[in-house]
């Protein structure tokens, strides 16, 4: 077993549970974190949320520098505009999963052009909150396959 599994969340995801429940559901970010920790079991898990692009980039660098076994990222609005986050993700040598609660590819042109998709290992989208623990499980399995 190598480094921690990282789960990073972008802007406004702290409002899950009350933010547009018809799109994002009623599960809170705290509940999602609990589900991820349950899925990870004894495995180290880093779970964070930020509204700051700079902080997100710093966390990606921290994941790299601490030998993360894998990284799941819901970049939220950064998905469509942040070349800087995309460039940081390019430096991650471990598997990276781009994660979205809704299916961004069915929400129209504004939401379907992900910069991150070009540089990640896999994408989980449209599975609601259940996509998070699935991404954690996938990263753990991918890490085991690399061992």
TrEMBL record:
Catalytic activity from the UniProt record: 3-dehydroquinate = 3-dehydroshikimate + H2O
Keywords: Amino-acid biosynthesis, Aromatic amino acid biosynthesis, Lyase
Metabolic or biological pathway, per its Swiss-Prot or TrEMBL entry: Metabolic intermediate biosynthesis; chorismate biosynthesis; chorismate from D-erythrose 4-phosphate and phosphoenolpyruvate: step 3/7
Entry EC number(s): 4.2.1.10
This protein's record includes keyword Transferase: no
SUPFAM superfamilies for this protein: Type II 3-dehydroquinate dehydratase
GO molecular function: 3-dehydroquinate dehydratase activity
GO BP: any one term: aromatic amino acid family biosynthetic process
Function: Catalyzes a trans-dehydration via an enolate intermediate.
PANTHER family recorded: CATABOLIC 3-DEHYDROQUINASE
HAMAP family referenced in this protein's UniProt entry, alphabetically: AroQ
Subunit structure: Homododecamer.
Listed name of the protein: 3-dehydroquinate dehydratase
């Amino acid at each position: 077993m190598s480094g921690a599994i990282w789960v990073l969340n972008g802007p406004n995801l702290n409002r899950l549970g009350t933010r547009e429940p018809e799109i994002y559901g009623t599960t809170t970010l705290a509940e999602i974190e609990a589900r991820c920790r349950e899925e990870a079991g004894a495995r180290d898990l880093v779970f964070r949320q930020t509204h700051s692009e700079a902080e997100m980039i710093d966390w990606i660098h921290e994941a790299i520098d601490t030998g993360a076994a894998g990284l799941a990222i819901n970049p939220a609005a950064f998905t469509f505009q942040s070349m800087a986050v995309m460039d940081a993700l390019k430096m991650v040598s471990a598997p990276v999963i781009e994660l979205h609660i809704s299916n961004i590819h069915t929400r129209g042109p504004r939401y379907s052009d992900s910069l991150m998709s070009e540089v990640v290992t896999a994408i989980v989208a449209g599975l609601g909150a259940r996509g998070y623990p699935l991404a954690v499980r996938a990263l753990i399995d991918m890490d085991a396959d690399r061992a």
